[in-house]
Amino acid sequence: MFALPYNFVSYPDLMLSIRSNIARVPREIDLIVGIPRSGMIPAYALALYLNVQVSDLSSFLERRTPTHGRTRAPVRVSSDPFEARHVLLVDDSCLGGGTLEHARSAILAAGFDGEIVTCAAIVAPEAASRVDVWFAEIPLPRVFEWNVFHHSIIEDACVDLDGVLCVDPLGHENDDGPNYAAFMANVRPLHVPSRPIGHIVSARLEKYRSPSEEWLARHGIRYGQLHLLDLPSAAERVRMRAHHKHKSEVYRRVGARLFIESDDTQAAEIAQTTGRPVLCATNMKLYSGNGVYLRNIASYALRERRGAADVMRSVRRRCATLLQRMR
User: Is 49 a domain residue?
Assistant: First the structure.
């Protein structure tokens, strides 16, 4: 079986890891500070679960009043974020720990004299000792739902067009005639990767290559090759059930590391046919080489043997903070 190129983490995976391990967060936390942009995702989730105020890093450093909705006020409300005594500093992931440490140093330099507890929702196993709180260990290499279209893997991937790069045509638009021509000219983009795509693989017919290329250029979507289906009509395509067969053949031939498909049924079929991983962009599920949905996040229960290590790490961090303030 073809090995999965990356460990994939979706938004539901992230929320599961937080929800299952919320007890790891010290209960005395009275303010959560997220590191933009991706760190704000777990920061807001944690703030809502714990019902405490939340701020982004820049707003906190500028001592701007944290805001909240009118439906449910946090347990402790303060106009000055520096009045918090226990701050949870949050990022989405940690590898080297440099981003969290840089943010922590900036907070101390701004004059905050409370306790700072560092938190990364996802850590590499070798980075677990570099943060105070984490929720899931995911080994490298890894890719997240919130950055998959801007990750280097996109440069060696096959990516579907309709339903991934642009919205799917409605029934009346998919007439293999003037309505479809209008659709191709005016369809809205869905995902515009910031890196060039290795291969765009679509069941669009070869006769629509020119309008497809024009649309991709107009929206700044860069790519290596555009693979279309060489059949005379959409009716013939349906008769031959050529959608996933065409995509599977190209995927196998070019040897890409990942296929991103819009339809969940086709995603499972492509994975099963090729023995290679396929990510469905509609439900953000990764199908393994046997066509089965693969979950990379497990529930990480608190492990008692980490208790002593957690305490010692916290003590070391507090001592370092005191020493820095005394300088």
Answer: yes
Say yes or no: 196 and 287 in one domain: yes
Mean pLDDT of 31-54: 96
pLDDT, tens only, 271-310: 999 999 999 999 999 998 776 666 555 543 333 334 434 4
Q: Are 135 and 15 in contact (CB under 8 A)?
A: no
Predicted confidence (pLDDT) per residue in 227-278, tens digit = 999 999 989 988 888 889 999 999 999 999 999 999 999 999 999 999 999 9
3-state SS record for 195-263: CCEEEEEEEEEHHHHHHHHHHHHHCCCCEEEEEEECCCCHHHHHHHCCHHHHHHHHHHHHCCCEEEECC
pLDDT of residue 67: 76
Residue 12 counted as domain residue: yes
Tell me if 120 sits within 8 A of 144, measured CB to CB.
no
Range(s) of the domain holding residue 126: 7-138+300-326
Same domain (yes/no): 128, 176: no
* Nearest of 158, 149, 152 to residue 226 by alpha carbon: 158
Half-sphere exposure of 299 (CA within 13 A, CB side): 7
What secondary structure does DSSP assign to 99-149, as a single string?
A: HHHHHHHHHHHTT--SEEEEEEEEE-GGGGGGSSEEEEE-PSSEEETTTGG
Q: What is the CATH number for 82? A: 3.40.50.2020
Angle made by CA atoms 309, 312, 314, in degrees to the nearest 5? 105
Identify which has the larger pLDDT, 140 or 189. 189
- What total of structural domains would you count in the chain? 2
* Residues 169, 122 share a domain: no
Q: Residue 321 falls within a domain, yes or no?
A: yes
Find the CATH number of the domain harbouring 237. Answer: 3.40.50
| Distances, alpha carbon 196 to alpha carbons 157, 164, 200, 227, 273, in Å | 10, 15, 10, 15, 26
H helix or E strand, kind and range, residue 94 = strand 86-94
Q: Is residue 143 part of a domain?
A: no
